Structures are given as structure tokens and as C-alpha cells.
Amino acid sequence: MRTLRTIILLSLMVPAANLALATATTHIWGPATDVQPFKVLHVTADMYLPTQLDALPGDVGVQLPPVTNLGLTCGVLPTKEVQLEVGVDHKAGFGAFDRYPLYFNAKLGVPENTLMSRFPALAVGVFDVGTESDKTDYNVVYGKAAMSFEQVGRLSVGFFSGNDKLLLDSEGEKSNTGLLAAWERSMPEISDKLWLCLEYVGSNSAYGTMNIGGSWKFADNASILLGYDILNDADLAGVENYFTAQVDIDLNIR
Length: 254
Known about the structure:
Elements: H1 4-11, H2 14-18, E1 40-50, E2 67-75, E3 83-92, E4 102-110, E5 121-130, E6 137-149, E7 153-161, E8 177-187, E9 191-201, E10 209-219, E11 222-231, E12 241-252
């Protein structure tokens, strides 16, 4: 069986095997339980940079370009107890897949403590709904719960499943399901503007990563996040890690 690496080298579409995420409201890499409030438009500009200058095996003369993601997500349900966001992303840096740059997402969620005291936040959603069958339609569905603990921060856990024709490991075997887990905490001991996160996304597919990072809120509605993403299966396309920089802005459109 041909491995993904062989397929990638033949097609020169390496980044598509490594980065396939869309910007539903996220932690660093995977989805969070947070949902955009009604008529709040979330604008994001993300960049992912491979740590290796020449990540491909052999002397093929091909460098991995950065992957960029421009996304819009908006809250569309006028209730506080149950919230719904929908979004679209334009992604580039995927070689031939750049012909199909649009990916859609949606999330339905209940904020923490809404139903009763100490009741966790809950969310279900879908992301990376591409427009080209068996090329960009990753169609990842997930469910996740989160709970905040004093001094500790917020812990979340969930599960995802995606298109088993696209979410494969480096041997070309299906790896389309996995765990979602994260710890996050604002750091008022240092500054109310600082937020830190440690996140894990399971599987040996394009989504499987361990992520660490933090954000700084430089305005009431804007922040910048810097992170480091470690792929679970570095052989998937010959690259192990990515740096990410993400700028997020919230606009009230009421």
C-alpha cells in the first residue's frame, strides 16, 4: 500500500496532509465548547509555519510553505441558554487543494452553569466541511464538555470523528477518530490579559497533535495567540512541528 508520504510527494500537496483544521471557536488547534454570542462576528487570521526548513525526505527541492487561514464565525441564535455559531474559512498553502479554498463549520452549545449550578458547558458541532468530495470534505463531527475549577482553570474533554477516506495515518490506514482534551486558564497573577492552554487532539491523522500556547489580549475585543503544535504522526508528511500565530477580533454587529 502506498503511504501518504508517497502520495504527497507525487502530488506536491504536502500541507494538505498536515493541516486541515477550520476556525470554529477553538483552543489552539481543536474546537472549544465556547460559542460566539448572538450577532458577534469573530474574525481570525491564522498562520502555521513548519519548524523544518526542508521537511520533505530526500533531495526533492520542495519546501513546505506556510498555511494561512482567514475565517469568519458568527453567533446566530438570540438566546443565552443555547447558542449557535456558523462560520466559513478561506485556507491557502495546500497546493492543488487551493482550488477549493472554502471550508464551513457550525457549533451548538450550552454555556457552563446554564442548566444548573456546576453543570458543565456542552457543545456539539462540525468543522472542515469542504466543497470537493473526498478531497476537502473532512466533515469532522464532535462533542465536548468543559468545567471550570477555581485556581486550576478549565478542563475539557470530548471526542471527534471524520471522513475515513481522508483522515489516515502515515501508512495509509484509517485514523479518523480521536480524543479531544484541553486545560486552559487566565493568569490574573501575572496579567488579566494573559491566557495559557495545553491541548491534545487524538488520532494519527492530520488532526492529531499536542499543542501548547498562550494569548495576549491587546484590546477589549482583540487578542494574539502564539502556539507550538507537535504532530502525533511526524511521518505523515515528514514534518514534526508547527509554530502558529493567530490574531482574533470580535465585532458586535447589532
